[in-house]
Amino acid sequence: MLNADYRPLSYYPLSLWSWQDTLKAVFMERVNIVSEYDRVVRSPSFEMRLPSVVSLKTYVKPSRQPAFTRFNVFLRDRFSCQYCGAHDDLTFDHVIPRSRGGQTTWDNVVTACSPCNLAKGGMMPREARMHPSQRPHVPTVAELHANGRHFPPNYLHESWQDYLYWDTELDP
Asked: Distance (Å, rounded) from C-alpha 23 to C-alpha 61?
């Protein structure tokens, strides 16, 4: 689904609707059909190709600041442990532990693999001799979009390519 300016409402997760919700929006005249699949849906009195890309008729102003979510922390940190660089078994770590007054905020949380998170435990970075490779910070939407281009969804239909900005040749 695209905004009225033909940009995706969201890249992370990609703004997708079920085919049922898409058809409902078409019939309620809330969206324009931009592209269609070859597949057809039928009823006894009606036949229609399924829309693959739709755009809203009314522009929705995008958020200026990304939501603080586990996924967005991982995306900011490029899905890698900020202590050892691992890409598996990811969690998030409070740089200043919660037991020491640290808060769950952009400025205090980093991506960490489970072994590093367990090793650091409730210690301060200096005590554990573990310092994040990048300082935790509030990312911009543009930063998350740029990082996300390294991690395209598992499946992208060819009709979506003109509206998305992933370089599928990049390695994460």
From this structure: 23
Q: Please give the Cα distance from 163 to 6 (Å, whole number).
A: 7
Beta bridge partners of 111: 92
Q: Which pLDDT score, from 0 to 100, does residue 168 have?
A: 44
**Cβ proximity of 118 and 81 under 8 Å:** no
Residue with tokens 């997760």: 13
User: Strand, helix or coil at 38?
Assistant: strand
d(CA 133, CA 135): 7
* Beta carbons of 76 and 147 less than 8 angstroms apart: yes
75: nearest Cα among 168, 7, 142, 155: 142
Rounded CA separation 143/149 (Å) = 10
Query: What type of residue is 119?
Result: A
Q: Is the pTM of this model over 0.85?
A: no
Model pLDDT for residues 96-139, shown as the tens digit of each residue = 999 999 999 999 999 999 999 999 999 999 999 999 999 999 99
**Owner of token pair 């689904």:** 1
Q: How far is CA 38 from CA 14, 49, 155, in A?
A: 22, 6, 17
Single-letter amino acid code for the residue at 17: W
Q: What are the residues whose beta carbons fall under 8 Å from the beta carbon of 90, sequence distance 6 or more?
A: 74, 79, 81, 111, 112, 113, 114
